[in-house]
Amino acid sequence: MNIKALLLITSAIFISACSPYIVSANPNHSASKSDENAEKIKNLFNEAHTTGVLVIQQGQTQQSYGNDLARASTEYVPASTFKMLNALIGLEHHKATTTAVFKWDGQKRLFPEWEKNMTLGDAMKASAIPVYQDLA
After folding, report:
1. pLDDT per position as a tens digit, 32-66
2. Statement to judge: residues 68 and 84 lie in one domain
3. pTM > 0.85
Protein backbone atom coordinates (compact mmCIF):
# COMPACT_ATOMS: atom_id res chain seq x y z
CA MET A 1 0.00 0.00 0.00
CA ASN A 2 1.42 3.39 -0.87
CA ILE A 3 2.08 6.09 1.72
CA LYS A 4 -0.68 8.47 0.50
CA ALA A 5 -3.36 5.79 0.80
CA LEU A 6 -2.11 4.80 4.25
CA LEU A 7 -2.14 8.44 5.41
CA LEU A 8 -5.63 8.95 3.99
CA ILE A 9 -7.00 5.87 5.78
CA THR A 10 -5.26 6.79 9.05
CA SER A 11 -6.58 10.37 8.85
CA ALA A 12 -10.10 9.13 8.20
CA ILE A 13 -9.92 6.85 11.24
CA PHE A 14 -8.68 9.66 13.50
CA ILE A 15 -11.25 12.15 12.21
CA SER A 16 -14.11 9.69 12.66
CA ALA A 17 -12.87 8.88 16.18
CA CYS A 18 -13.10 12.57 17.08
CA SER A 19 -16.61 12.99 15.70
CA PRO A 20 -19.43 13.44 18.20
CA TYR A 21 -21.31 10.27 18.99
CA ILE A 22 -25.02 10.95 18.71
CA VAL A 23 -27.51 8.45 20.04
CA SER A 24 -31.19 8.75 19.44
CA ALA A 25 -33.00 6.36 21.69
CA ASN A 26 -36.55 5.77 22.73
CA PRO A 27 -36.84 7.87 25.93
CA ASN A 28 -39.48 5.53 27.36
CA HIS A 29 -37.14 2.56 27.00
CA SER A 30 -34.18 4.23 28.71
CA ALA A 31 -36.38 5.60 31.50
CA SER A 32 -37.85 2.19 32.23
CA LYS A 33 -34.39 0.58 32.07
CA SER A 34 -33.07 3.26 34.42
CA ASP A 35 -35.95 2.69 36.83
CA GLU A 36 -35.31 -1.06 36.70
CA ASN A 37 -31.61 -0.54 37.46
CA ALA A 38 -32.44 1.89 40.26
CA GLU A 39 -34.65 -0.71 41.92
CA LYS A 40 -32.02 -3.46 41.54
CA ILE A 41 -29.30 -1.31 43.10
CA LYS A 42 -31.60 -0.21 45.93
CA ASN A 43 -32.36 -3.88 46.65
CA LEU A 44 -28.64 -4.74 46.74
CA PHE A 45 -28.07 -2.14 49.46
CA ASN A 46 -31.11 -3.40 51.37
CA GLU A 47 -29.98 -7.05 51.11
CA ALA A 48 -26.58 -6.03 52.49
CA HIS A 49 -28.34 -4.35 55.43
CA THR A 50 -26.59 -1.06 54.74
CA THR A 51 -27.39 2.32 53.32
CA GLY A 52 -25.65 3.99 50.45
CA VAL A 53 -25.79 5.72 47.13
CA LEU A 54 -24.03 5.18 43.82
CA VAL A 55 -23.67 8.33 41.71
CA ILE A 56 -22.90 8.03 38.01
CA GLN A 57 -22.04 11.11 36.01
CA GLN A 58 -21.99 10.87 32.24
CA GLY A 59 -21.21 14.19 30.61
CA GLN A 60 -23.57 16.72 32.17
CA THR A 61 -26.07 14.07 33.27
CA GLN A 62 -25.93 12.73 36.81
CA GLN A 63 -27.98 9.80 38.11
CA SER A 64 -28.15 8.52 41.70
CA TYR A 65 -29.02 4.96 42.70
CA GLY A 66 -29.39 3.36 46.11
CA ASN A 67 -31.48 3.47 49.25
CA ASP A 68 -30.09 6.73 50.72
CA LEU A 69 -30.16 9.16 47.79
CA ALA A 70 -29.85 12.21 50.08
CA ARG A 71 -26.32 11.05 50.93
CA ALA A 72 -25.22 12.09 47.42
CA SER A 73 -25.75 15.72 48.44
CA THR A 74 -23.19 15.47 51.26
CA GLU A 75 -19.52 16.08 50.49
CA TYR A 76 -16.92 13.71 51.92
CA VAL A 77 -13.13 13.71 51.87
CA PRO A 78 -11.65 10.96 49.68
CA ALA A 79 -9.89 9.40 52.73
CA SER A 80 -8.44 5.96 52.02
CA THR A 81 -9.85 5.82 48.49
CA PHE A 82 -6.99 8.18 47.61
CA LYS A 83 -4.48 5.67 48.96
CA MET A 84 -5.85 2.75 46.96
CA LEU A 85 -6.06 4.71 43.72
CA ASN A 86 -2.64 6.25 44.25
CA ALA A 87 -1.10 2.82 44.90
CA LEU A 88 -2.69 1.33 41.78
CA ILE A 89 -1.53 4.22 39.60
CA GLY A 90 1.97 3.97 41.08
CA LEU A 91 2.12 0.23 40.38
CA GLU A 92 0.74 0.54 36.85
CA HIS A 93 3.17 3.31 35.92
CA HIS A 94 6.15 1.55 37.53
CA LYS A 95 6.66 4.32 40.12
CA ALA A 96 6.50 1.67 42.85
CA THR A 97 6.68 -2.09 43.23
CA THR A 98 5.39 -4.40 45.91
CA THR A 99 8.93 -4.79 47.28
CA ALA A 100 10.27 -1.23 46.91
CA VAL A 101 10.99 0.47 50.24
CA PHE A 102 9.88 4.03 50.91
CA LYS A 103 12.46 5.58 53.22
CA TRP A 104 11.29 7.40 56.33
CA ASP A 105 12.69 10.94 56.29
CA GLY A 106 13.20 11.03 60.07
CA GLN A 107 10.41 13.55 60.69
CA LYS A 108 8.00 13.09 63.59
CA ARG A 109 4.72 11.70 62.29
CA LEU A 110 1.15 11.70 63.56
CA PHE A 111 1.44 8.02 64.49
CA PRO A 112 4.61 6.24 65.66
CA GLU A 113 3.79 3.35 63.27
CA TRP A 114 4.51 5.73 60.38
CA GLU A 115 8.05 6.49 61.62
CA LYS A 116 9.91 3.75 59.74
CA ASN A 117 10.83 2.57 56.26
CA MET A 118 7.89 0.81 54.58
CA THR A 119 6.93 -1.11 51.49
CA LEU A 120 3.66 -0.24 49.79
CA GLY A 121 2.05 -3.20 51.58
CA ASP A 122 3.31 -1.96 54.96
CA ALA A 123 1.99 1.50 54.16
CA MET A 124 -1.41 0.07 53.22
CA LYS A 125 -1.64 -1.84 56.52
CA ALA A 126 -0.60 1.23 58.56
CA SER A 127 -2.62 3.64 56.40
CA ALA A 128 0.60 5.68 56.21
CA ILE A 129 -0.35 8.89 54.43
CA PRO A 130 3.27 10.14 54.07
CA VAL A 131 4.15 7.15 51.86
CA TYR A 132 1.22 7.91 49.55
CA GLN A 133 2.12 11.59 49.47
CA ASP A 134 5.66 10.60 48.50
CA LEU A 135 4.31 8.31 45.80
CA ALA A 136 2.06 11.07 44.42
Report:
1. 777 888 999 999 999 999 999 999 888 999 899 99
2. no
3. no
Is the same domain home to 71 and 84? no
The 3-state DSSP class for residue 68 equals coil
Which listed residue (30, 64, 80, 127) is catalytic? Answer: 80
Query: Residue 47's domain spans which residues?
Result: 25-75
Active site residue 80: yes
Of residues 135, 39, 41, the one with CA closest to residue 83: 135
Domain boundary pick from 75, 94, 111: 75
117 φ/ψ angles, rounded to the nearest 5 degrees: -70, 145
Give DSSP secondary structure letters for 19-60: S-------HHHHHHHHHHHHHHHHHHHHHTT---EEEEEETT
In terms of domains, do 71 and 90 share one? no
Sort strands 101-102 and 61-66 into parallel, antiparallel or unpaired. unpaired
